[in-house]
Amino acid sequence: MRNIFVGILLLFMLHSRAETSDTIPPHAARSVTLDEVVVVGGREEAGSRLLPSLNVVRVGQDWMDEQRAGSLMQTLDGVPGVRAMHIGSGQSKPLIRGMGFNRVLVVENGLRHEGQQWGDDHGLEIDQFAVDRVEIIKGPAALFYGSDAIGGVVSLHSRVMPMKPFEAGVRLFAQTGNASAGLSARVGGRRGRHYYKVCFTVVDYADYKVTTDSVRYYSYRIPLRKRRLRNTAGREYDGSMAWGYTGENFSTRVDASLVHLESGFFADAHGLEVRLSDIDYDRSSRDVDLPCQRVNHVKLTNHSLWQTGDVRWESRVAYQANWRKELSEAVSHGYMPLPPGNVERSFRKQTLAAGIGLEVDVQERHRLQAGLTADFQHNRRGGWGFILPAFEALSLGGYLLDRYTLSDALTLNAGIRVDRASLHVHRYRDWFLTPVADADSVHKERSPEGRWTFRSLTWSVGGRYVSGAWTWKVNVGKSFRVPQPQEVGADGVNYHVFRYEKGMPDLQPEESYQLDAGMAWRTEQAHLHLEPFVNYFPNYIYLLPTAGYTEGLQTYVHTQSRVFRWGFEAGASYRVLPRLEVGVQGEYLYAVQLSGAGKGTALPFSPPWRAGLELKYVFPSADGTGDGFVGCSYTLVGSRNRIVPPELPTAGYGLVNVSAGKAFAWKGHRMSVHVQGLNLLGKRYYDATSYYRLIDVPGPGRQFSVLLGMEL
Amino acid sequence: MKENVCIARFKAVVCLLAVCICGLSSCSSEEGDLRKPVIETLDDSFPTNCQVYVKGGVIPFHYAFTDDVELGNYNIEVHNNFDHHTHSTEAGDCPFDPVKKPVKPWVYNRDFSIPPHSLRHDARVEIPIPDDIDTGDYHFMIRVTDRAGWQELKSVSIKIVEAS
Predict the structure, then answer these.
(1) Cα–Cα dist B149/B70, whole Å
(2) What is the pLDDT of residues B55-67, one digit of tens each?
(3) Are A469 and B6 an interchain contact pair (Cβ–Cβ within 8 Å)?
(4) What is the pLDDT of residues A301-342, one digit of tens each?
(5) I need a labelling partner for A234 at 20 to 30 A (CA). Which of A184, A320, B11, B67 fits?
(6) Does residue A428 belong to any structural domain of this protein?
(7) Domain for residue A292, yes or no?
């Protein structure tokens, strides 16, 4: 018994040591290719520790500082297989191997991050400076998280525990493209078994610069003043705090955070409609006029760990409130008269989640984990525009998994999970009257009252084999996604893209089967890796564009079709000279619908292939505290011609970026500086997965960014 | 020595994968309809940008639609632009009346089907303008789809005036 306690204590010490050091070992942090499958020390999180066969990429704050951009996903955009879907310059959402929206899951400190992730213009609502490290699981991860973890999981950790009685850090970030300035400060401390952490971030950005004087939309030319995309400015205020207790066999932690975002949408087009306005958008490039969005995301969580005998227990409780408002100038449309006020849409989503799990060693070689999760969502809507009905949803899940260590080299893992989700969608009727043939005018019903129950059984089996410099992985898994309320229950106009979307009440939970493999070979000198995958959906929920019209707008219908996808990420790096490293990496994805009216066509938002070449020269210092580097990269992105309505074909492009960084000591403080030059050649290009692609807005032009860091 | 064996093994795997990739890509050449339909403005097309019509009169709608595979349906919609909220998709500005509040604005919204398997359709519709509506600036929207769900649209600014 005492041995177990000593062991746990040792584990905790190792764990906290790992927490405070960088996630990637020094040579890998400098490396131009990221560690894909090599497992590094005891730094794995619950999601991947017991599933060693999954392909996981981990990045720490140092790597993120080197890549720092306007939003979290833009910072992570360089991770192979991961893309940012840009919503202007200050917000973005994740895309893992072409899966986005409700097909990837964002997890913060082990709990699902619940925003309004279904919308094209909804960002991630995360303070990127509060994140200590990121783990990206590529592939099915339903076992731990239930619904939505189809494409993968972006798992964020801000759990680094302060080690000193008092510590503080400040980071300043500035970027020229959108004239953004950010300040993030954090303080923390540890006294005995108690610790605390506080973090504040302020970011302010102006309308972003593009590489054109005008945007051409259909045959109408929209002139841009000073090449700035009118009304895309925004600001972000974030605050978070944590208190924790860490004892010998019990530790607990309470986190509270608020993310407040405000950002404008391009003023000259709303949805797909060219807009004129009396607002003088050009009087300032920093103000946020209509149309715009305002979001408050509040989170309150508790995570506890305790050890009783051989069993390690874990519990999580979380409350989240996501209040989102989309404002625009009131305009009459069709039979809708001039609406009152500027709130086009508002969403108030509250989520209460709880989970309990246990982990135990059985016969030394088996590590078993079991758990139960419950998640209740309450969503209310407002405003004169309708997309999403009010709803309540309750999800219950239970899982069991086993990691079987056959030898030092070979580890197998298998797991099974059951889920039950119930959904109650509220009725919604238009607030205005629409004339109906041979009858009086009516308040048309846009969403009928409805109740659904979905059940799902998911599983995963895999193994990892490590031999010398080689690591091999293979995993087969099933994941699922519960249909969204608008997918089953809506019947109305989506003014984001001016189309009429019809829900399908008999949709089944979307299921996905995926085979993943991973191979990596790493020496001090070189690193090679390859992660191929094949993926099959028997019933992918596809918003099918039809040739029909409803109320003057093209009708899109939620349908289910069979889908096949495959792709890979690959990379190689080689240390040509002791200080010079050269690397190449690339990714490819192919998706095709095998049935239904969209048979033979691609999937929406499938990103084109991408390949990059990078050179990095490192200036090591004797004690490792004054390391520096300069790097240069050339990224090629393929053209995208396999598209589905209403997407536009997008030509390929190449971008040149440079970066440099240096750490140094100043009066006993650790200082760091990072600079980046992005799109150095000022290339005009179109990002196929950007929110603004449909209205033909190019990506940002040449820009420079700087990040200064200071640790007290 | 051992590393060389490893490299050889790695190369073999890469080659195998490359073969798989080539094999898979070659069998996926069937791409389907990737082009939008086209709204063709003819010499005698109506209405065109900045045209003026009278209350109680008729808009003799006439445009041609074409597609490379198969046309779908089309829709004609008219709504007021008294608040100057939106611009036509045509180049050039039309003179606007002063901004005003709608009292009884004209709303016209109708779907029309195109005979199946059409690659070209000559669309003619006589659209009567009611004589009890607000005069002023209107938008005339033309939308057409093809069978695959691609849509093209055209927005034309017109003005409706009192019959003199």
Answers:
(1) 10
(2) 999 999 999 999 9
(3) yes
(4) 999 999 999 999 999 999 999 999 999 988 877 788 889 899
(5) A320
(6) yes
(7) no
Spatial contact of A96 and A104, defined as CB atoms under 8 Å apart: yes
* pLDDT one-digit tens code per residue, A95-121: 999 999 999 999 998 889 998 888 888
Structure tokens at A316: 């999580």
Tokens of A518: 């991973």
Which chain A residues contact residue B88 at CB under 8 A? Answer: 220, 274
Strands B51-54 and B151-161, by their bridges, are parallel
Question: Is A288 inside a domain boundary?
Answer: no
Task: Return the SS3 of A395.
Answer: strand
Euclidean distance between CA atoms B134 and B114, whole angstroms = 32
**Is residue B22 very low, low, confident or very high in pLDDT (cuts 50, 70, 90)?**
very low
Domain that holds residue A690: 2-283+297-711
Share of chain A above pLDDT 90, in %: 61
Q: Which amino acid is at B38?
A: V
Tally the domains of chain A.
1
Question: pLDDT band at A49, cuts 50/70/90?
Answer: confident
Provide the token pair at A62.
């140092």
Render pLDDT for A665-701 as a digit per residue (tens, 0 to 9): 888 888 999 999 999 999 999 999 888 888 888 888 8
Q: Does pTM surpass 0.95?
A: no
CB burial class (10 A; 0-12, 13-18, 19+) of residue B133?
buried
**Chain B contact for A611, CB < 8 A?**
no
- Nearest to residue A22, comparing CAs of A62, A49, A56, A58? A62
CA dihedral sign, ordered B82, B83, B89, B92: positive
The neighbouring-strand residues paired with A204 are A181, A235
Give the separation between CA B146 and CA B116, rounded to whole angstroms: 10
User: Higher model confidence: residue A47 or residue A381?
Assistant: A381
Q: Give the number of other Cβ atoms within 10 Å of residue A508's Cβ.
A: 15
Preferred mutation among B34, B41, B49, B89 to probe A, highest tally of A CBs within 10 A:
B34
CB-based contact A549 B75, cutoff 8 Å: yes
* A290: in domain: no
Contacts of B7 in chain A (CB under 8 A): 521
Nearest to B151 among A338, A554, A643 (CB): A554
Interface test with B, best of A218, A441, A499, A561 (most B CBs within 10 A): A218
Contact B88 A220 (CB under 8 A): yes
> B112 to chain A: nearest residue by CA?
A549
The residue assigned the tokens 């396999």 is A642
H/E element, A602:
none
B121: closest CA among B40, B43, B44? B40
Beta bridge partners of A238: A201, A259
Query: Can you read off the two tokens belonging to residue A327?
Result: 């404002």
Interface predicted TM-score (ipTM) over 0.85: no
By CB atoms closer than 10 A (0-12, 13-18, 19+), residue A226 is: exposed
Whether residues B72 and A519 touch (CB distance < 8 A) is answered with no
CATH code (residue A448): 2.40.170.20
DSSP state of A261: E
